[in-house]
Amino acid sequence: MLAKFLHDKFSLGLCFVAPLVLWGLIAAIFYKEIPTRLNVGVVDLDHSHLSQEIVTALNASSYLNLKHFYSGLDQAKPFLANKEIYGVVVLPKNLERQIKLGIKTPVALYYNAEFVLVGKSIANALLQTLLTLGIKNDVARNLATHSDLNTAKALAFPLHVNLHRLYNEDNNYAQFLSSVILPCMWQIIVALGMLNFLMQCSSLSDILGALGLNTAIFSFWGFLMVFFLKPYDAHLGVFLLAVILLVLCVSSVVIALHALLSDPLRTASVIAAYTAPSLAFVGVTYPTPNMPVLGEFWGSLLPITYFIKSFIALLHYQEGVPLALASLSKMWFFLLFLPLGLLVHALRKKTC
């Protein structure tokens, strides 16, 4: 099996080039880690000192880049539709006058909701900026009647909110997404690699040899993926167990499917339908308990679901090891597909 593998350029490319290309693609997409300097337009209908102060404060935010200024919302709409800007802030007419009169005046934000993360970042930056400016104005107004600065601050902002981000303190979307996307892509390559090896097998010993070779190669890539996503060595043994177990489980399922379907094209189609939706059903981008029954059921059929749960438990929870081992214990079920596949293959050999 090893000799066949070394002389097969497609197998070498699938096992060694494809993982590097996919890793490079993910690293290139998420290298910035957090969204910064997002292009935003401004429609200033007031042209007052307050509106200029708001524009300056917005542009000072690390999230925003006030790229264009428009005379009206109609002028800004084509730029928003063409994705040259992600949002438009509209400062209404008589904004400063109404604020001084104590009339609440909304500052409108129109943003492209197709980009969920970008839209959330822009909305949060605008809200934070306006709250800061509002408090500054209230403090200045209170100082006119109260000479003490602390009293003026307390009257302007009597409730102090202390927010604590858990598990992703820096709002790093690369940490959030790459720790899900990379394992899901890795699972697909593991399955394709195993199928490619099976197409060169003619006996049970060949299948077992292919299983060992596929496990060795893609466990190696799994170890590198873990080191890339988690650069410290806490609970390293559990991580390595999870990697090897995932490769064995996926390979076992592929062996069973190949034995049952006995057609590489149909097997590849079933593998694609089985593994491709992994990102949607692993329960990270969308909570599993809130999914429909079918989505929750499909997620339970994917080995990568339990791998990612154990990965997250080890990364973020104090009692991570028991939680991780509990998730990994549910993966042993997938290993039952290995004897099933070998049995079906042996029966087919006898009937031929």
TrEMBL record:
> What are the TM regions of this chain, as residue ranges?
12-31, 173-195, 207-229, 236-261, 267-286, 298-317, 323-347
Subcellular location per the Swiss-Prot or TrEMBL entry: Cell membrane
Q: Name one GO cellular component term.
A: plasma membrane
In terms of InterPro entries, this protein maps to:
ABC-2_transporter_component, ABC2_TM
Q: Which residues form the signal peptide?
A: none
**Key word Ion transport present in the record?**
no
ABC-2 type transporter transmembrane domain spans which residues?
A: 11-342
Protein's membrane topology:
Multi-pass membrane protein
Q: Name one GO molecular function term.
A: ABC-type transporter activity
Top-rank taxon: Bacteria
Q: Which UniProt keywords apply?
A: Cell membrane, Membrane, Transmembrane, Transmembrane helix
**Principal localisation:** membrane
Q: Determine if Transmembrane is one of this entry's keywords.
A: yes
Protein name in UniProt: ABC transporter permease
